[in-house]
């Protein structure tokens, strides 16, 4: 049942390019305005994450992905069992149709037709349920990562955090700007505290 296969779209982090217009290095001054425009300079501090790496080692995603895959297999098996049961009924009807009355044939075919329709509707409902589960996980993942990056950026005075992978517009990023390992550690630290039933501390990131 290909429609029920799990598809966790990594493109969910396309919007991880979050702008943190937080702290400007040079305070604005009325005396700096010369009448030709705002001359206030901005010290733009930028970092980036490798989204593939972050997603690969984020324990929250790993756990929830495994749970969703298990649910997908269970739904798929349930559908297969129902389909096999209906197939058995169809085969029994085909074996016995010659000994059935016209009324019995019509009634059986009508019943089998309804069961086929119900099975198709059930298949569609399973596919829809899995799509909703995937969308929910994607929303939660996006929210967790962006919330962490916002806090991380505030603590380190970052104005921009970019997503760096083959699908992004970032063609090159110096290793000194890569905060992927910090983000992975911080996200996993928060998740471990959450699993333990505690409150996430204000700073769970690794400082370079």
Summarize the structure.
The protein is mainly alpha-helical and 208 residues long. It is built from four helices and three strands. The protein has one domain: Protein Binding, DinI Protein, Chain A (2-Layer Sandwich).
Describe the structure.
Strands 1-3-2 form a three-stranded mixed sheet. The radius of gyration is 28 Å and the shape is elongated. By secondary structure, the protein is mainly alpha-helical. Helix content is 56%, strand content 5%. The chain is built from four helices and three strands; from the N terminus they run ββαααβα.
Return Rg in Å.
Answer: 28 Å
Reported CATH architecture: 2-Layer Sandwich
Q: Count all strands and give the number.
A: 3
According to CATH, the homologous superfamily is Skp domain
Number of helices: 4
Mean pLDDT: 79
Numbering strands along the chain, what is their spatial order in the largest sheet? 1-3-2
**Relative helix content:** 55-70%
Low-pLDDT windows of residues: 1-41, 201-208
Q: What top-tier CATH class fits best? A: Alpha Beta
Proportion in β-strands: under 5%
Helix and strand element order = EEHHHEH
How far apart are the termini? 47 Å
Estimated structural class:
mainly alpha
- Largest sheet, strands/sense/barrel: 3 strands, mixed
CATH topology descriptor: Protein Binding, DinI Protein, Chain A
Shape: elongated
- How many distinct folded domains? 1
Coiled coil: 76-125
InterPro entries: Chaperone_Skp, Skp_dom_sf
Keywords: Coiled coil, Membrane, Signal, Transmembrane, Transmembrane helix
Transmembrane segments: 6-24
């Amino acid at each position: 049942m290909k429609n029920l296969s799990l598809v966790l779209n990594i493109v969910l982090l396309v919007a991880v390019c979050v702008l943190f217009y937080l702290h400007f290095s040079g305070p604005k001054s009325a005396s700096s305005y010369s009448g030709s425009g705002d001359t206030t300079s901005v010290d733009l501090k930028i970092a980036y994450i490798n989204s593939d790496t972050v997603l690969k080692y984020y324990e929250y995603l790993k756990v929830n992905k495994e749970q969703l895959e298990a649910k997908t297999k269970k739904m798929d098996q349930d559908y297969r069992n129902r389909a096999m049961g209906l197939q058995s009924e169809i085969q029994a009807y085909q074996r016995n149709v010659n000994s059935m009355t016209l009324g019995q044939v019509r009634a059986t075919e009508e019943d089998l037709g309804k069961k086929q329709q119900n099975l198709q509707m059930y298949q569609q409902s399973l596919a829809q349920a899995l799509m909703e589960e995937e969308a929910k996980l994607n929303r939660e993942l996006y929210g967790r990562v962006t919330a962490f990056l916002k806090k991380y950026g505030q603590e380190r005075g970052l104005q921009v955090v970019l997503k760096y992978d083959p699908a992004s517009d970032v063609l090159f990023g110096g290793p000194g700007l890569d905060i992927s390992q910090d983000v992975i550690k911080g996200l996993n630290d928060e998740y471990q505290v959450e699993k333990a039933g505690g409150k996430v501390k204000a700073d769970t990131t690794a400082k370079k």
